[in-house]
């Protein structure tokens, strides 16, 4: 998250009047915000119940009447359940710098996003707990109990907990305006279409969406393009989800490249050597032939396996920077997180593993503390939050696990409702565990709550996925090795949309922003500016690599 903190000033979401039109007011110093009323149920717009979407805009420097003005690009950061407001506060300026240009074909864009249904400052919120403190304590308890394979009874504990939360989140006693059944991707795609329409100079015309979606945001984009293929002007889908697998509940193939990304950690570490990679220091257990890369990588793999096996039996404890224990599940979670952003996190992973090997848990404890802080907003989302404890309602934030689970379960349209633990284990848990040796267990409980998630969206998406009559071809973007959205899925989804192209970025990590490539930025800029797609088979090299990123001075961007 960004270390910068935007000051709220006099802005408050609660004091900003919602409307059926976009009435933007200044917020967070350099941004504009609005609260937009949309139907709770897009399949019955005569119903008076509404959702109030929290919208944020980073305006471009040119006037909307200027011929260089290119319109608004809507961003979805993924999750599902991540806050679009936070995304623009954290990365909006970076995104704007990528898409805007100052050459003879210059275009300037407003960057817009929103908190999706149930998320952040969009109302009503998903209600599973009486307050945010209860939600926070629940999350801490789940983490303490560990991953499905961390102990003899861990799977049973997780199953019971997920059934409890699935039932609580879909409690029908909460009232008719509860968001629970209405936060599926189909509903959000209709919100997206409505927002795109209102952002146009003539809001009476059909929407012509300009969109950049990351991770789950690609699933939202694929759903939108399948529903409204003639209402797309530009669409970049970055870190591509297999929509066929998502809607059927079969995601084990999403992890086909995961262990290859882990292998890249060992390879980069060995090539960088010590001290660039702290885990390359084998002084305690000297490697016989350190010049043999295959042998060196196998040796690093064994050392990580030994660390995990030791922690599974006996957790480490530390009093610094605060009292903490380090478990097998903690290190698996760290490993999973590092695979998303290798340039930033592989060096941290290496340092922590080196410390743990020496029975020093302080660096891992510091990482756990930092991870907890990241669940709080990096920008005060409401003026009341500045004088409140972080678990007060004024400090609502996105990325709560129940949001992710709820959207995923609703998109399955009750395909797993009332499934037993034994059936779940055979159909989902075992295939996911087998799909990735290193981190399959971190995803194995993903669909567990769906056995008791009783809500069903009134307008669930039933397909078909894809379109042959797109108004504009889609640009799909994927890293060569992505831990959760493999390159093969980008090609599979591209094949369903006539004229679309896959741009491959030669890097590891999740989504193009996991690395830095002037080539990738050039093609994305050109596409938003003119609609020009890169030639089929384009491979973009990157300027930075794990353990070497600090030596790279970023050059001026296109």
Automatic annotation (TrEMBL):
Domain AB hydrolase-1: 73-240
Organism: Aspergillus niger
Keywords: Hydrolase
Organism lineage string: Eukaryota, Fungi, Dikarya, Ascomycota, Pezizomycotina
Hydrolase listed as a keyword: yes
Molecular function GO terms recorded: hydrolase activity
Protein name: Peptidase S33 tripeptidyl aminopeptidase-like C-terminal domain-containing protein
Family to which this protein belongs: Belongs to the peptidase S33 family.
Chain ranges of the Peptidase S33 tripeptidyl aminopeptidase-like C-terminal domain: 439-540
Gene3D superfamilies: alpha/beta hydrolase
InterPro entries: AB_hydrolase_1, AB_hydrolase_fold, Pept_S33_TAP-like_C, Serine_prot/Carboxylest_S33
